[in-house]
Amino acid sequence: MMAVKLGQDQYYQVKSLCRYEEKVKGSRFIATAKPVTTEAEANAFIEDIKKEFHDATHNCYAWKVGVGRSQRYRYYDDGEPSGTAGLPILKSIDARGVANACIVVTRYFGGTKLGTGGLMRAYGKMAADLLRSCEIEKRFFTESLVFESEFDFINVVHNVINTFEAELKGANYGENVVTFSVEVKASQLTAFKTKLTDATNGQVRFR
Length: 207
Fold this sequence. Notes:
- This protein is an alpha+beta fold and 207 residues long.
- It folds into two domains: 10-139, 2-Layer Sandwich (Ribosomal Protein S5, domain 2), CATH 3.30.230.30; 141-206, 2-Layer Sandwich (Alpha-Beta Plaits), CATH 3.30.70.
- It is built from five helices and eleven strands, in the order βββαββαβαββαββαβ.
- The protein has helices spanning 39-52, 86-95, 115-133, 154-163, 189-199; strands spanning 10-14, 18-24, 27-35, 58-65, 72-76, 101-108, 136-140, 142-150, 167-173, 177-185, 204-206.
- The strands form three sheets. A five-stranded antiparallel beta sheet has the order 2-3-6-4-5, with helices on both faces. A four-stranded antiparallel beta sheet has the order 9-10-8-11, with helices on one face. Strands 1-7 form a two-stranded antiparallel sheet.
- Strand 9 (167-173) and strand 10 (177-185) form a beta hairpin.
- Helix 2 (86-95) packs parallel to helix 3 (115-133) and helix 4 packs antiparallel against helix 5.
- The radius of gyration is 23 Å and the shape is elongated.
- The relative contact order is 0.18.
């Protein structure tokens, strides 16, 4: 399976809960994905799926939360042979370039054993096909930046923010200065600060 090649700022995220179902040699597989941002959210989703499919033979899963250095992940085979279910699901998540997602693949055993290789292919394919059927949105790694500027440069600051497609999170107007809070693409942070400094003739103060 080939990994999706992304720019250094980019990653993908599942937009909303989605589901895909398929039969493999008599076994019924149901793959469900949901966007999550914390381990607690992932665990709560897994418990919901276990309750929904309480009579299933297996509810195997993998999740990945956070981006960059804060990224965490976990996978679980739920009774399938070690390494044949959770890990293939995680590899499919990685191959799609997805972050902040949890996938649970439910299996109702159909009477035919798939073998180690067959299980790995089945669970990996279910996760991959699920992600292809989900609505995926592109996200960007960003850095938070807070800075002050005098009133005379408000329009200049807004022009720089728009040029870099940064997200203005807030603007606090004081007596003589405006304090801006923005989110900037990580790879553009240095260039953004340089442009602000040049555009305001050095009349900007970063916190």
